[in-house]
Amino acid sequence: MSADLSQAAVAAKSNPTMKDLVEAQRGAIERQLGGAMNSDAFVRAVLSEITKQPKLMSADPKTVLGGVMLAAQLKLEIGSGLGEFYLTPRKDKGRDVCLPIIGYQGFVKLVLRSEMVLNVEAFLVREGDDFSYGASSDRGMFYDWQPRDFDEDRPWVGVVASARMKGGGTTWVYLTRAQVLARRPSYWDKGTPWQTHEDEMAKKTAVRALAKFLPKSTDLGRAIEADENKASQVAGLDEVQIARVDEEPESLIVQEGELS
Questions:
Q1: Between residues 226 and 174, which one has the greater pLDDT?
Q2: What is the mean pLDDT of the segment spanning 208-213?
Q3: Containing H/E element for 102?
Q4: Distance of CA 44 to the CA centre of its chain
Q5: 250 — phi, psi (to 5°)?
Q6: Residues 221, 225, 41, CA angle at the centre, nearest 5°?
Q7: Cα–Cα dist 255/169, whole Å
Q8: How far apart are CA 175 and CA 201, in angstroms?
Q9: CA neighbor of 79 nearest in space, from 112, 53, 115
Q10: Among residues of the chain, what percentage have pLDDT more than 90?
């Protein structure tokens, strides 16, 4: 594989920065996006996130590039304000790494890529709401929800995610707060979206649970497998970068397990 000018420039540097490494991957990123998103805007968003989070600048390049390429493969926007995909700096055995976290809006977008799903949404059940669920011969599995008000400061006690199917009918799941928190990674309170966007991450957890019962696109299946895991080996990384970060060429995404 021949290197383009940006790759050659990075290769010539003795100590390329993380921004240099990302810039050198523009060609690989564009191939992964496949025209679904503007590659220049995507790279600008990545560089903006790296600038806002200095720990990403010193993180293991394999994990940062792995997260970036995962977002590109899934065609999700990177940025804390968008709620689709987060690049999160973490500590793993004393070294800085990047943990990719797919947000609520990201999972909604992936679910809707299935032609069988017309709509998907999630809402939080809060203290004081009138909420019940069950099953009957007339209604099948059902839930009834009457919010006390729309005050989002009331503590939440559960979350519902539902999907309306093209063939008719609705599929839904309900998770209690305890069930949501039991699924939350152990590193939740250290600068991840679980600390800064807990409501959105609770809804994401419910949508992720709902996805088990929905038709899956390739992207949704990949997202469920890769979410909140280190991605350090990624198909599509250009050779000069693979060599620089000691990666094996032509490898697939490999998740190394949740960080503890």
A1: 174
A2: 90
A3: strand 95-102
A4: 18
A5: 55, 35
A6: 75
A7: 35
A8: 13
A9: 53
A10: 42
Q: What does the chain come to in residues?
A: 260
How far apart are alpha carbons 236 and 138 in whole angstroms? 52
User: Is residue 247 scored above 60 in pLDDT?
Assistant: no
Smallest CA-to-CA distance from 24 within 63, 65, 72 is with 65
Output the pTM of the full model: 0.76
Q: Within 13 Å, how many C-alpha atoms sit on residue 74's CB side?
A: 34
Q: How far apart are CA 227 and CA 183, in angstroms?
A: 12
172 to 13, 144, 176: CA distances (angstroms): 53, 12, 14
Q: How confident is the model at residue 260 (pLDDT cuts 50, 70, 90)?
A: very low
CA angle, residues 215, 219, 222, in degrees to nearest 5: 100
Burial class (CB in 10 A: 0-12, 13-18, 19+), 254: middle
Contacts 24+ apart (CB under 8 A), 173-176: 173/206, 173/209, 173/210, 173/213, 174/125, 174/133, 174/143, 174/206, 175/205, 175/206, 175/209
Q: Is 164 left (phi over 0), alpha (psi -120 to 50) or beta?
A: beta
At 194, list the tokens: 């679980």
Crossing angle for the helix pair 218-226 and 61-74, to the nearest 10 degrees: 150
pLDDT tens for 177-187 read 999 999 887 66
220, 146 in Cβ contact below 8 A?
no
The number of beta carbons lying within 10 Å of the beta carbon of residue 132 is 9
* Helices 5-12 and 26-33: angle between axes, nearest 10 degrees: 140
